[in-house]
Amino acid sequence: MKLARPVRRTPPETIIALIDVVFFLLVFFMLVGRMDATSPFEVLPAEARTGADLPAGGTMVSVGAEGALALDGHATGADALVARVTAMLADRPDLMVRINAHKDARLTHVLPLVARIEAAGARDVMLIVTPGGG
Amino acid sequence: MKLARRQPARPLISLVPMIDVMLILLVFFMVTSTYLNLDMIPFVERRDEAPAPTATAGEDTATMLVRISADGRTYLRGRELDPDMLGRAVRERLTGNPLLSVVVLPSTRATTQQLVSTLETLTRAGATRVRLMRLEAAE
User: Fold this and answer.
1) Which of A62, A106, A44, A52 is nearest to B114 (CA)?
2) Which residues of B touch A107 (CB under 8 A)?
3) Which fold is adopted by the domain A46-130?
4) Do residues A42 and B31 touch, judged by C-beta distance below 8 A?
5) Where exactly are the structural domains of chain B?
6) Phi, psi at residue B37, to the nearest 5°?
7) Interface probe, candidates B90, B107, B111, chain A, greatest A C-beta count within 10 A
8) Hey, what's the signal peptide range on this chain (chain A) (predicted)?
9) What are phi and psi of A93, to 5 degrees?
10) What is the pLDDT of residues B2-18, one digit of tens each?
11) What CATH number should be reported for the domain whose range is B62-132?
12) Tell me: the pLDDT tens digits for A33-65?
């Protein structure tokens, strides 16, 4: 009697290749993305082609299109924000303050705030812009 | 005679939990990161060196005042200039005086984009000493 030889199962796709791909994706997203605190409202920075590279670190003040304020992702009022930044500056006098203002935010919401932050002793205040546009 | 069946070699560490962890990390980084390319324009710069030069009586021509109106148009000495003309005017003045300092006075009702665009025009024209006139908070 001739027994049918059991059909050999084809081996499943090698799982190593899958791990490689996932690992590449992981490293890619880690390098490309920025782990910033996002503001509770939408902030589209102004566009400029002459901006310098944004250094990492520091604290971020977000200004919404209608003047809403947030410090490091938490919505706050102007006085509380300045008080908080002042306290941070007392801890670290060289603290970098990044102003992330919506491109349609009126300057009356931005510049007096910058002046107050500067008066609080900040020596490194910058406005976040995004490259591109006209 | 009984033949011992060879046990297939088991992998030391199962790969499946590792893939799970990596996928979770991957999704975490994809979701939490922001992918907007960001640059910056300094507002207040660390001035460890000499303080900003103060204009004396003889240097009053070395300063140029650019106003930005509420609707974002730029004015130089009361004349409205579009960005191209403003850039040209600044470039002309810079050839005579490379240390020309440009003071920008924006209306409080202008938007951030309008200020940034004007600053960009000035920077591209070659002005290195651009300053923003402080707005007093009128509330």
Assistant:
1) A106
2) 106-112, 115, 135
3) Nucleotidyltransferase; domain 5 (3.30.420)
4) no
5) 62-132
6) -75, 125
7) B111
8) none
9) -65, -25
10) 677 777 777 677 778 88
11) 3.30.420.270
12) 877 777 888 888 888 888 888 887 888 899 998
Whole-number pLDDT of residue A10: 67
Residues of A within 8 A of B67 (CB-CB) are none
Say whether residue B17 is in contact with chain A using an 8 A CB cutoff: no
Tokens representing A133? 């546009």
Which residues in chain B are contacts of A56 at CB distance < 8 A?
none
A92 close to B (CB below 8 A): no
Q: List, for residues B25-71, the tens digit of each pLDDT value.
A: 999 888 888 777 788 888 877 655 444 444 444 444 578 888 888 88
Sign of CA dihedral A76, A79, A85, A88: negative
Could you tell me where the beta strands, DSSP code E, fall in A64-130? 69-71, 74-76, 96-101, 124-130
Q: What mean pLDDT is predicted for residues A99-126?
A: 88
Rounded mean pLDDT of chain A? 85
pLDDT for A7 beyond 80: no
Residue at token pair 């402080």: B134
Contact at CB, B36 and A45, closer than 8 angstroms: yes
Q: Which residues of B touch A132 (CB under 8 A)?
A: 37
CB pair distance less than 8 Å for A15 and B25? no
Which amino acid type is present at position A8?
R
